[in-house]
C-alpha cells in the first residue's frame, strides 16, 4: 500500500515549531500503518531523541537558534531517523516517503539521515558546526534545551 501523509495534522505540528511564540522546538512524524502522522512535539530536544529507538523510522523537524544576544535567528532541520533494527524494505521506502513529508515541511536549512544516536549529525552542536549553514556566524547554535 502506498504511503500517505496526514497533511493537515502534520502541517499543524510543523507550524507549532515554526511559531516563534509557541515554545515548541521539535515535532516528530511517525508511521501509523501506511500513513505518516504527527508523533509528538515538545520544547526539549532530549524528548525527541527518546522517540528515536532501534525499531522505528521517523522524521523530526527541529528548530535551531543561532546568533548572539543581539541577533538571534531561527533555522530548521529535517532529521530522518532509521533505527538499526528497521527492515531493509522499510529503509529503502523511507527515501521516497521523505518526498511526501517535504510537501508539508517546506522550509528547512539542513537535512540529516541518522541511524545511530552517536552519529555526529544526530548530536546537534557537532552537526551544525561541521555542516555548512548559511548565516550562522561563529557562535555555536543551540538546539532547544539539551
TrEMBL record:
Residue ranges constituting the ADF-H domain according to the UniProt record: 2-133
Species classification: Eukaryota, Metazoa, Chordata, Craniata, Vertebrata
Gene3D superfamilies: Severin (3.40.20.10)
GO molecular function: actin filament binding
Biological process, per Gene Ontology: regulation of actin filament polymerization
Any Pfam family the entry gives: Cofilin_ADF
A GO CC term assigned to this protein in UniProt: actin filament
Protein name: Coactosin-like protein
Family the entry assigns: Belongs to the actin-binding proteins ADF family. Coactosin subfamily.
Organism in which the protein naturally occurs: Paramormyrops kingsleyae
Location(s) in or outside the cell: Cytoplasm, Cytoskeleton
Function: Binds to F-actin in a calcium-independent manner. Has no direct effect on actin depolymerization. Acts as a chaperone for ALOX5 (5LO), influencing both its stability and activity in leukotrienes synthesis.
InterPro entries listed in its UniProt record: ADF-H, ADF-H/Gelsolin-like_dom_sf
Quaternary structure and interacting proteins, as annotated: Interacts with 5-lipoxygenase (ALOX5/5LO) in a calcium-independent manner. Binds to F-actin with a stoichiometry of 1:2.
Keywords noted in UniProt: Actin-binding, Cytoplasm, Cytoskeleton
Amino acid at each position: 500500500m502506498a504511503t500517505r501523509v496526514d497533511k493537515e495534522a502534520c502541517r499543524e505540528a510543523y507550524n507549532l515549531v515554526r511559531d516563534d511564540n509557541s515554545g515548541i522546538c521539535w515535532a516528530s512524524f511517525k508511521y501509523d500503518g501506511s500513513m505518516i502522522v504527527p508523533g509528538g512535539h515538545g520544547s526539549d530536544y532530549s524528548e525527541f531523541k527518546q522517540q528515536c529507538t532501534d525499531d522505528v523510522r521517523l522524521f523530526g523537524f527541529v528548530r535551531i537558534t543561532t546568533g548572539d544576544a543581539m541577533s538571534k535567528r531561527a533555522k530548521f532541520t529535517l532529521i530522518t531517523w532509521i533505527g538499526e533494527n528497521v527492515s531493509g524494505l522499510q529503509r529503502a521506502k523511507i527515501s521516497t516517503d521523505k518526498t511526501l513529508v517535504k510537501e508539508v515541511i517546506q522550509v528547512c536549512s539542513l537535512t540529516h539521515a541518522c541511524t545511530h544516536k552517536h552519529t555526529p549529525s544526530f548530536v546537534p552542536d557537532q552537526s551544525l558546526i561541521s555542516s555548512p549553514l548559511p548565516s550562522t556566524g561563529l557562535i555555536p547554535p543551540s538546539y532547544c534545551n539539551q
